[in-house]
Design goal:
The protein is mainly α and about 300 residues long. About 70% of the residues lie in helices and about 0% in strands. Helix 5 crosses helix 13, helix 9 runs antiparallel to helix 10 and helix 11 runs antiparallel to helix 15. The two termini are about 45 Å apart.
Length: about 300
């Protein structure tokens, strides 16, 4: 080590080491507190239902079993509904991000025709909606009932996400587009060749928001879909959970014989079903999140605060 590096080396006192030790310990405990709920759900989903109901599963699986997952995978239409959920998440997220970014780009241009008027009209929709019944009538009049398009078209544009993307795009130097315009690039070329590549942080953030919303949504299936071939995974699991909960309550009240319940839902408890469902529906999103996490903070901060 050279003399210069030795002189520039930071010297810590005993109090500094004590502070860093306490600091690392506090963050370590905080990390454990954040991770433990996920760990708790996983070990309970891998434990016997009786032990789960008794609350004995705290640190590791008791009477390890994968019967909970076997029960979920044995549901009718489970694979078809999983495919529908994956397709609606991929297609819906892609279409929504593209259309929302397209609208945000034009609203970021002050020379747009009646810019302020159209922008205010769009912002109003963030605070006021037609309501459930008019919304249903609108979906029906558009012919979207019992159609895969009902998962895509109604959510094409999110005004909140559009505002975030618009604010981010306004932070991009206008000289970049002006130079491309001088070279003959049109509006669409400037959008896809310059603006969108520079907006990757906010687009990744919006993609995460949209994908989570698409994957977790089941209310649109409940309201607009009666065709079992279009049921989503979340709707199937939610429906099964309600049935298991009703059966367990009937058993507790003595309305139904235990052998009937055993044949219908097996030895799996309602609590273990609920925890297994939680693992199934959150695991895919947890796998995607690490890939976009590095863009998350930068994108949401720049997109939320202008300048």
């Amino acid at each position: 080590m050279s003399k210069a590096s030795k002189c520039n080396k930071i010297r810590y006192s005993g109090w500094d080491y004590a502070f860093h030790t306490v600091n690392y310990f506090v963050y370590f405990v905080f990390t454990l507190l954040c991770l433990y709920p996920f760990y708790y759900i996983i070990i309970n989903s891998l434990s016997d239902g009786t032990m789960v109901d008794l609350g004995r599963v705290l640190w590791y699986p008791i009477k390890f079993t994968i019967a909970n997952y076997k029960k979920m995978l044995a549901l009718s239409n489970i694979y078809t509904s999983a495919l529908v959920s994956v397709l609606r998440t991929l297609i819906g997220t892609f279409c929504s991000v593209v259309v929302t970014a397209y609208a945000a780009y034009f609203f970021s241009k002050p020379n747009m025709w009646h810019h302020k008027l159209w922008y205010r009209l769009v912002i109003v929709t963030m605070y006021f909606s037609a309501g459930l019944i008019p919304g249903y009538m609108n979906i029906r009049s558009l012919g979207l009932l019992n159609s895969f398009a009902v998962y895509i078209i109604p959510g094409l544009i999110s005004v909140y996400n559009m505002v975030l993307i618009k604010t981010y795009m306004e932070s991009i130097p206008a000289a970049l587009e002006e130079s491309a315009q001088i070279d003959g690039a049109g509006v669409i070329r400037r959008l896809f060749a310059i603006v969108l590549p520079l907006s990757i942080p906010i687009l990744a953030t919006i993609t995460l928001f949209t994908a989570v919303g698409q994957w977790n949504s089941f209310s649109d299936t409940l309201l607009y879909v009666t065709d079992e071939k279009l049921y989503t995974l979340q709707y199937i699991l939610q429906m099964y959970f309600r049935q298991a909960d009703i059966l367990s309550k009937q058993l507790a009240n003595g309305v139904m014989d235990s052998s009937i319940v055993e044949n219908m839902v097996g030895s799996i408890s309602t609590t273990s079903i609920r925890l297994t469902i939680t693992v199934i529906v959150t695991f895919p999103i947890m796998c995607v999140y690490p890939f976009v996490q590095k863009y998350f903070l930068k994108g949401i901060m720049i997109g939320a605060v202008k300048g």
